[in-house]
Design a protein that fits this description.
By secondary structure, this protein is mainly β. It has ten helices and 52 strands. Strand 13 and strand 14 form a beta hairpin. Helix 8 packs across helix 9. It starts with 8 loop residues before the first helix and ends with a helix.
Amino acid sequence: MKHETARSSRRAQRAALAVAVFVAVGLAYAVPGAQTAAKKPLGIDDYTKWRAIAGQEISGDGQWVTYGLSFSNTAPADSKPVLHLVRRETSQDIEVPNGTGGRFSADSKWLAYTVDPSGGRGGRGGRGGAAPQPPGAPQPTDAPAPTTPPAAPQTPPATQPATPSTGPGQAQPTGAPARGGAARPEVPPRVELRNLATGAIKSWQDIQSFTFSANSTYLILRRRAPNAAGAGGGRGASSAPETPGAPGAAGGAAAPAATGPRGADVILHNLVTGRDQLLGSVGDIAFNKPGDLLAYTVDATVKDANGLFVLDLRNGRVETLDDDARLYNRLTWSDDGTALAVLKGLDVEKMRERDNMLIAFPNVQAALTDIEAAPLVLDPAKAAGFPKGWVISDRAALDWSDDHKRVFFGAKAQMPAPDTTRKTTDEQANVDVWNTADERVQSLQMIRAEQDRNFTFREAFDVPAGKFVKLADGTLRDLEVAPDGRWAVGRDTRGYIHDYKRAAADIYRVNTTTGERTLMLKAQLINTSTGNHTFGISPDGRYFLYWKDNKYQAYDLDAASTRTLATPPPVSFVDLEFDHPGPRPSYGIAGYTSDNKSVIVHHRYDLWQLPLDGSAPRNLTNGFGSKNEIRLRYVRTEPLDPPGGVTPGGPGGPGGGRGGGAAARAKIDLSKPITLSAYGEWTKRGGFYELANGQLKELVYEDASFSNPVRAAKAEKYLFTRQTFVEFPDLRVSGPGFTESKKISNANPQQAEYLWGHRLLFDYKDKDGHRLQGLIGIPDDYKPGEKRPALVNFYEKNSQNLHRYSAPSYLASMGSSPVQAVSDGYITVIPDVYYHTGASHSDMLESVEAAVRKAIEMGYIDPKRIGINGHSYGGEGAAFIGTRSRLFAAVGMGAGVVERRSAWAPASS
């Protein structure tokens, strides 16, 4: 029963203003009790002292950790990022002002990072590139480490938007004015490489991105493209490098094509010899998975030099796989690093799409030894069955099947380039014509117009047969391809698009060899933000898992038959806490077993193993979770992809791919110990258990909240955070079994100067007897027996946030995370709401009043001085409560709708 209103900055400002006004006017009473000695309340200027951690990574040997630290409540140019490098054993902490995006080599001998002193840019890269920046852009190199925060802005921003990132195809204008200031001189970013054993540093100027080879032998560094358009992948490459062969969406949108050549200089640094090799005018570039071959395309001003090349790093020889006066992009290795594919094409005059052909090398090693070996080519002009007037699109990624027999690509219709010339001085008409036959209303069509223009359909190139296979079209737009490439599953949502009914589709099996379609499921519910009803194709490509009639179903793609997976009574996998309209979903799945015979699913508390052949299931956690009301969930501690092998300036923009990607193909080996997170349903305690040989062992379980731990690649060392309402989630490193846990960061020591308070968990019931919980925030200077003014805030359920740290924020500090109110001496109450379908506002009134009466009964609150606030759907609830309840002296509402005409959809639900 949610109604999410638009989260515009204007509404956010209204929300903040509404809260400030009702606190200042409605609750302006003197707060009894003296301030705690040597501590002071938070002031609005103090918010700028808080810092955030980002980009944390642990080295493969577990001896080093790197992370970024920056001010989070400032203008981007004032965030003063600092990169930290911490040696675990000695606690040595090396600080690099303006450093971001630290990445370790796989052998743990090197750390590379970006230093950007411009103050107006932020770099980004995922694995193998400049990493996502902390909030804000870097400062000049002479800026001090962030020990003293900048002054607070005169007008606090209502929101803190993410800093636009710089990456392939999306370089930011140089010398651009910093926010709130004049233009600064261009100071190019540099990449520094640190030898972790000696501390020696080597640097390169004007670098856009970097990546290590998987075997830790090479570092490649990409300079910024001369035309400042970036050098990423296809048209409108994404800001972050992609993993070659990584999966994407069934179709994709991309930004307009960059003008001019994409090529930029790339430096190949040998980590063993220390020597540099320069590659000029490089478009895409990527190591294969073993790290012994480096493929790249040339995209030069003089197109005669363009081509696809492979550098054999074992002998230093460069081989030309293809050369032509055309444009090469979407360079893609197979997952095992033995096959290679690329697009080659020409821009067509007055047309929007490039005319591409697909070139595939299923055995790159053979192509290197036999220079006469011809590649396999899919040319739309010659391929039988290829739709006339369509192109192979560089707006979508390429993807190899595991057996190298197919390359999947995006295709779309060619269309005229937009005419940007103004032919008349007359004003353009601003009339929108609505049609009742439209599946989407006119306003939504306008918003998605560019996305629709860039959408691509997933198709296949049968490599051994050299033929085109049509898989998707306007009737089957969404397509998931199995990892082995033999089958695909598509969705036809036509006929099920509705403004209030649950999302559904007809599901089809697609043979990727013939293109033949077989109807699998009719009117099957599909995934939405409120629950999943389909779970994709199994890692071995045989089963499609879905949820129907309150049971898991496995469709055998080979046999074209469905099997219901056994559920022993009275066990149920139905999400009993689901409080939205429509059929209840399940609690979801954890993954598949390594032998491909079972799926591991979530019960409310336990984990179950369901064999895909329908045989008897097994409770992996032996009912421990249910008996103790502790929710146990599988945690993958190892990264899915090894470091290296990504493409700085490589494929960009969304594209098709095998559904589920690496996450779906990752398997759970039950023969080895696995880590489970633990959450106490009613105690809110958190921690981890180990499941080994069918036995559970408690590792850590306490009154705190933990992040998912990340294990070092070659050592049993774990990086994670621990937090409470009072304790900031600083980074910690532990040994096996979470022993010897050691805090290695101290992001916000200034918190000790301020009145902060603490939280209590309390129980109450609604009129139907449902057990509910809420949170009470108690100021530090509260004395037993005092009755203080209170602020109530609510939105669905929040008691699970008992141990969540609430950093001061210009948007949320008086709202969903009212840390400011507690610091100022107010009691805060955050109740859970129990929803009955169809009566959400009355449910809010009932649950909130029950919680407030319980808090009054507990003796904390002055019943004559209570204010209530809500935002979005909670804002609607606050307004409704204000017209029905006599408990509240003041009401604040942010971004809520108070009349039903503009919010008829949730009302009708």
